[in-house]
Specification:
Blueprint lengths: L12 H40 L6 H14 L15 E7 L4 H5 L6 E4 L2 E9 L6 E9 L2 E3 L5 H8 L1 H7 L5 E9 L5 H22 L9 E11 L2 E4 L5 E7 L5 E4 L4 E3 L2 H12 L4 E2 L7 E2 L2 E10 L5 E9 L14 H25 L11 H5 L1 H5 L3 E9 L6 H14 L9 H10 L12 H17 L14 H45 L7 H40 L5
Parallel strand pairs: 1-5, 1-16, 6-15, 6-16
Antiparallel strand pairs: 2-3, 3-4, 7-8, 7-11, 7-14, 8-9, 9-10, 12-13, 14-15
Helix pairs in contact: 4-6, 6-7, 8-11, 8-14, 12-13, 14-15
Length: about 575
């Protein structure tokens, strides 16, 4: 008889644990899905709220910027906290997000907490997923956010200069608007010009301590510097020249000044000139200002013609990085080179004005040469309003603009290399002769000083911060552009001279022909006619030969310009 079967115990513990783990994983997965769905809905709602607020774009980056602003909101100071305006005032104005930026979902990445301006650059960590912000800050005399009106910008930055101009002390005041194309320079300057027109006549009429409107002439001129050429916008774009005499006085020959009798009259001249300003489409803006526009308002005593005050309102051409000029044609690239050169020269002149340097490199560009008295006079005051775009895609542009404005006030001229200091010393000797144009040697010294200054600065300079080209390429490009402008000027002047002389010769030919068509003509009259006609034809042939030679030189320079690195 066999033994009874044993009761078998089935172990279910392992299966229970596995099933529990599977169920837990499924529950966790469902929870993650639920949280992801909630997060997705929250992001969608947040995106709609951002769009409604006029700030579309990456929800995560916008959230990071909001969080940063909430943590630092108390850092902002009231605009009234500033003391008396300095001789050199640097302000930054941020414009609102534009419709074009909203359409491409370009979120707001700039914060102005007076007097500090912050740029929040969107970045990804090395994992390519985690998002963070790289914060850059710059401190100025004034930092205006998008909610500050043009009236307030004018009140804090420009009105003190208008009062200074109307004080009767012979002061020279200058207001510059600088920034990337499309950042609101011209909009800001147009508003300032309208308020200047009102306040000048108000002060001359009501200020008992200053000059009186009955004894004062208010004169206005408006011209632009475009591609190295100076054109009078109030006189049919008449071409002008800049002359400097042995006394160092700079005169824009041919520039017409118009007397204004009231604010509307003055503003009418300004608006008429603005409509004639040169604009072109660029990579950054469809209607970029490609010229420096200078509106000068001069106050003179009616009897003595003595200068009472001078106010220059300068709307600078839109700045661009080299990368934004890659697809430009030859003319746009030449314009960009001239613009960047003049902006660099302007920065060094303002820095020299605020520093201890005895030499101001105003001859390095036509813009700074024309404004020489604003840099060299002991009664000079300057305001620069740098305008910036808020979009994240323009962060590099914005940082360059802020860096440019920031370096204007840096006292670094004394820290130049020994070569730069030697150039400064050599430049201080002034010429005693009268010049029909400014001395080329002085111009070369000023330009070399600017290049040396660039070498003495960090590699994050305005013109190099986003480029790989070396300073030697920039210097070469600058010299080639200068040579091209000189050749163009020379060709145009010669062409005009040839036309004028040909007109005189044509008049003489008519008289000569008429003299031998009468009935009492003698043989010796015919001989004189033939001799003189031969001389006229030889002269015409010589003029044409000179013009052809000059044209050939200009074409050669155009070909060389095409081969310059960066062009």
């Amino acid at each position: 008889m066999g033994s009874p079967p044993r009761n078998r115990r089935v172990s279910t513990g392992g299966k229970d644990q596995t099933r529990l783990r599977i169920e837990r994983m499924e529950a966790e997965r469902e929870e993650r899905r639920r949280l992801m769905q909630e997060r997705k809905l929250e992001r969608a709602e947040e995106e709609q709220r951002n769009i409604a607020a006029g700030n579309p774009g990456d929800v995560d980056f916008i959230g990071l910027v909001k969080k940063w602003r909430s943590e630092h909101a108390e850092d902002a100071l009231p605009l009234e906290s500033n003391e008396a305006q300095p001789d050199i005032c640097i302000a930054v104005r941020k414009r609102p997000v534009s419709d074009k930026e909203r359409k491409r979902k370009d979120h707001d990445s700039v914060t102005c907490y007076h007097p500090v301006v912050w740029v929040h650059n969107a970045k990804l960590k090395v994992d390519g997923i985690t998002k963070y912000l790289d914060h850059s800050s710059f401190c100025f005399d004034y930092g205006f956010d998008e909610y500050v009106s043009t009236e307030d910008v004018y009140r804090y930055c420009t009105l003190p200069l208008v009062e200074f101009t109307c004080s009767g002390k012979g002061g020279r005041a200058t207001v510059f608007a600088y920034g990337q194309t499309g950042s609101g320079k011209t909009y800001t300057m147009n508003g300032i010009e309208a308020m200047v027109a009102e306040d000048i006549f108000h002060l001359l009429t009501n200020d008992i301590n200053g000059p009186n409107i009955d004894d004062t002439m208010v004169l206005v001129s408006f011209f632009e510097i475009y591609g190295g050429r100076i054109q009078d916008l109030l006189n049919k774009r008449h071409k002008l020249k800049v002359l400097e005499d042995g006394k160092g006085e700079v005169v824009v020959t041919g520039l017409r000044e118009f007397e204004a009798s009231d604010p509307q009259h003055l503003l009418g001249y300004i608006e008429s000139a603005q409509r004639k300003r040169t604009t072109h489409a660029t990579e950054a803006n469809d209607t970029s200002s490609r010229s420096h526009a200078i509106c000068q308002i001069v106050l003179r005593d009616k009897e003595s013609q003595k200068l009472i005050g001078k106010l220059s309102l300068v709307d600078l051409a839109g700045s661009e990085r080299g990368s934004d000029t890659k697809s430009h044609d030859k003319q746009r690239r030449t314009e960009s080179s001239e613009i960047n050169t003049s902006l660099l020269a302007l920065k060094e002149c303002i820095r020299a004005l605020g520093g201890s340097s005895k030499h101001v490199p105003y001859r390095a560009s036509k813009l700074t040469l024309i404004l020489k008295d604003c840099f060299t006079s002991s009664l000079a005051r300057t305001t620069m309003i740098a305008t910036v775009s808020p979009g994240a895609s323009a962060a590099d542009h914005t940082i360059n603009t802020l860096r440019y404005a920031d370096r204007i006030k840096e006292k670094k001229l004394a820290d130049l290399k020994s070569h730069s200091r030697k150039l400064l010393e050599n430049c201080q000797a002034s010429s005693s002769k009268i010049r029909t144009e400014h001395d080329p040697n002085d111009v070369a010294d000023d330009i070399e000083m600017l290049h040396a200054t660039l070498r003495g600065q960090s590699t994050e300079d305005l013109y190099n911060s986003t480029e790989e080209e070396g300073l030697d390429d920039y210097s070469h490009l600058h010299h080639e552009a200068e040579t091209l402008f000189e050749e163009e000027e020379s060709l145009l002047n010669l062409h005009m001279s040839v036309i004028q002389e040909n007109a005189e010769l044509l008049t003489e030919e008519g008289k000569l022909l008429q003299s031998v068509q009468s009935e009492d003509v003698m043989d010796y009259d015919i001989d004189n006619y033939a001799h003189r006609l031969g001389s006229i034809l030889e002269r015409k042939s010589y003029l044409i030969s000179c013009l052809r030679e000059k044209l050939s030189l200009f074409r050669t320079q155009l070909e060389r310009e095409e081969e310059v690195p960066g062009y």
